[in-house]
Amino acid sequence: MLADMSEMCGRKATMRAGLGGLLAMLACVSGMAFGATETGTSPKLDLLEFRVTGNTVLPQLAIEEAVYPLLGPGRSVADVEKARAALEKAYHDAGYLTVYVSVPEQKVDHGVVVLKVTEGVIERTKVTGAQYTLPSRIRAETPSTAEGQVPNFPEMQRELAAVSRAPGVHVTPTLEAGRRPGTTVLELKVNDTPPVSAWLDYNNAHSANTSDTRLAGGISYSNLFQRAHTLSLTYQTAPTNPSEGSAVSASYVVPLADYQRYLSVYAVHSTSDVTSSAVNVGDQILFGNNDIVGARYIMPLRPRAAMTHQLTLGLDWKNSKQEANGLSTPVRYWTLDANYGLGLTDAGGSWQIGAGTVLGLRGPGTGEISFGQRRYLAHNSFAVLKLNAQRLQKLPAGWSLVGSADAQLADQALINNEQFSAGGVGSVRGYLQSEAAGDQGIRASLELRAPTWTPSQWPLLKSVQAYAFYDAAYLRVNDALPAEIASYTLDSVGLGINLRAGRAFSLSLSLAQALTDGPKNDLSSSPPRPFTQAHDVRVHFDTRLDF
């Protein structure tokens, strides 16, 4: 991360990618006091002690380790220069790159040589460019940049990287010579974006027996109290008939430990008068009327080379109420979540891999009987394992291939809110949203993407990318009743296009053909038939505006 110093004193050096360039204005004076190199044979002298003056930052032990190897009888002037260079290197290795060491003119008495340390301090710190972030916050979160400090570059890098992890904030440091010799002026250039953002989404991801379209929107503020706290609100509904399915959710995220940990709390309220109507909230599919309150503790772990990973722990309280044949079956229960996510990049592409578990807990407000009423042989104490993987492989000429799969394993029969579903966008295209559900299953997709096209003749059109895909899923029902089908298979093929226009608009459009019949869940016909039959063609669209 740390580059070499610039060549001349007073020349401006800009640090990039954390601290990509370093201060140089002190380099030219290093070694001046120990002037000319002697010619001929250097006289011998006894070096019994190096007396270091001017040090305030380097531990005594580090100084001793640097100069002690050069002590002893029968030494030369060259050994004094080696001691000076070794001590200066010790400062630089410790991150104090504005420190230099010199040998002042002196008479060596009793084997004592004085080494003079000059510590370049920060004369002034300027915070510029901040529009939505208080300069006082930047200064408070980067104490190593305070005026009068001897800058420690690794520590400064760590602090600036932490500040730049905050949403919508990026800080670039710039160094230049100060007015007084041996000092620097540090400028922290802030590039921040408005903390308010919003989005609007219109699509046709609908379930069986419901209207065709869905409308969703959200707004968030990412710098509450000038502490990078984020408050988000979202709402989704069926615009032509809201009673078919609506959901409102709120979340509050607090950064912890230099933005390396996050605590998130959230609440969800969803309603639906249609038993088969599924409402997607995050990674969960909800049926009926639901209230969820939960928390997540998110821990990004130490990255390694091209690998990033994080651990997420969560606790949810869920209140689900569904009506069937005039009977209400409320279920209240707790779940404990743990998830691990891993990202890897290489020359050929990237991997995204994840594993997690959901555990149903016995606790206050839960009832074993209510679970059995909702689903035969279901219990409030259950265990679910979730796995997922995705590979993006670069191909010649700008083409790429994306393969993904996710799976769920369960130890027993589950109520429908905890089941694994398939069908629709994000799953098996060509079918209705969540057309099939099971306790266990696997979904897989293979997508061939064409090179991204950016038409120069239409400046408003930012990018267009076409793709072809094959989707498939296999679902299995645990403890299926005699009249139930114990397993389902869905698969489809199709073509699609992703389009971005202007600064805010995006469109995803796909045409998919189902290759197998879906579950025979359409009870309006006798005998029941699938909502989606083999060879049916379905168009999926999703339009989005980001503000």
Describe this structure in words.
The chain is elongated, with a radius of gyration of 32 Å. It has 547 residues and is mainly beta. Among the domains are: 27-119, Ubiquitin-like (UB roll) (Roll); 121-192, membrane protein fhac (Ubiquitin-like (UB roll), Roll), CATH 3.10.20; 419-547, no CATH class. The protein is 9% helix and 48% strand. Helix 1 packs antiparallel against helix 2 (77-93). Mean pLDDT is 88; it is low at 1-39. The longest helix is centred in the N-terminal third of the chain and has 17 residues, at 77-93. The strands form six sheets. The protein has a 16-stranded antiparallel barrel. It has a four-stranded mixed sheet with strand order 1-8-9-7. A three-stranded mixed sheet has the order 3-6-5, covered by helices on one side.
Task: Summarize the topology.
Blueprint: E1 13-14, E2 45-47, E3 49-53, H1 60-67, E4 72-75, H2 77-93, E5 99-102, E6 112-119, E7 121-128, H3 135-140, H4 153-164, E8 169-177, E9 183-192, E10 196-203, E11 214-224, E12 229-237, E13 246-256, E14 261-271, E15 278-281, E16 284-287, E17 289-300, E18 307-324, E19 327-346, E20 349-361, H5 368-374, E21 383-394, E22 400-410, E23 420-422, E24 436-438, E25 440-449, E26 461-476, E27 487-501, E28 505-514, E29 537-546
Parallel strand pairs: 3-6, 7-9
Antiparallel strand pairs: 1-8, 2-4, 5-6, 8-9, 10-11, 10-29, 11-12, 12-13, 13-14, 14-17, 15-16, 17-18, 18-19, 19-20, 20-21, 21-22, 22-25, 23-24, 25-26, 26-27, 27-28, 28-29
